[in-house]
Amino acid sequence: QVLRKSLKRGIVLSAGSFLAYEASRQISGFAEVHASFKVAEVIEQADYLYGSGETEKLYRLLVQHKNSEDAELLWRLARASRDLAQLSSTSAEEKRQLVYEALEYAKKALERNESNFAAHKWYAICISDVGDYEGIKARIANAFVIKEHFQRAIELNPKDATSIHLMGIWCYTFAEMPWYQRKIAAMLFATPPTSTYQEALRYFHMAEEADPNFYSKNLLFLGKTYLKLNNKKMALLWLSKAKEYLAHTEEDKQV
């Protein structure tokens, strides 16, 4: 009788525990769906603000979610922080703070999703920005990391013209590096980062093939690179395209 009562009680408890577990599982599942829906909603708002050029509003929206575990949100926050730092109304001290903030968000995005091409791209961009505050040794050391992450971004998304363009800028920068910086690089590193104008040109053309006429600066650098290679005919072609590009942003006007 005691055994029968104990077994009966155990079955009742098991049934109760099972029901509690199922309820908990369903609530947890609902919370996850709700959370993912909320993230999608924030991303949609963020993309609208980014497309509208509402830099400050975008930053204010995304910084509320700085503790998010979602890589898509975090890389967008890194981009928004950097964009805010670039505004002429941002003070030098605020700019420095935002640049380092942006790097932290990009790093976190990469930690959350190593397969996210945009996280790699913005991590590389943010490391490059931080280099402006850390001296030539750090900048040269970071160059290896930057190249690696741009290449990874391109591997993950070969259609992303911006990543390809930025890889071209990397090559152009090191092809153009002044002699004294090359000397410092050679003293600091056994194999310092190097590149050629031909390599830069290849990336700029690849970017144009991925998304024709996507960016005024890519047109400008195609022209500049052809000039470096003493091909004035091709330089004129691309510089004319850059000149005729319909300006949408301040950068387009500068180009």
UniProtKB/TrEMBL annotation:
<comment type="similarity">
    <text>Belongs to the RMDN family.</text>
</comment>
<comment type="subunit">
    <text>Interacts with microtubules.</text>
</comment>
<keyword id="KW-0963">Cytoplasm</keyword>
<dbReference type="Pfam" id="PF21033">
    <property type="entry name" value="RMD1-3"/>
</dbReference>
<dbReference type="GO" id="GO:0008017">
    <property type="term" value="F:microtubule binding"/>
</dbReference>
<dbReference type="GO" id="GO:0005739">
    <property type="term" value="C:mitochondrion"/>
</dbReference>
<protein>
    <recommendedName>
        <fullName>Regulator of microtubule dynamics protein 1</fullName>
    </recommendedName>
</protein>
<dbReference type="GO" id="GO:0005876">
    <property type="term" value="C:spindle microtubule"/>
</dbReference>
<dbReference type="GO" id="GO:0097431">
    <property type="term" value="C:mitotic spindle pole"/>
</dbReference>
<keyword id="KW-0206">Cytoskeleton</keyword>
<keyword id="KW-0802">TPR repeat</keyword>
<keyword id="KW-0677">Repeat</keyword>
<dbReference type="InterPro" id="IPR049039">
    <property type="entry name" value="RMD1-3_a_helical_rpt"/>
</dbReference>
<dbReference type="InterPro" id="IPR011990">
    <property type="entry name" value="TPR-like_helical_dom_sf"/>
</dbReference>
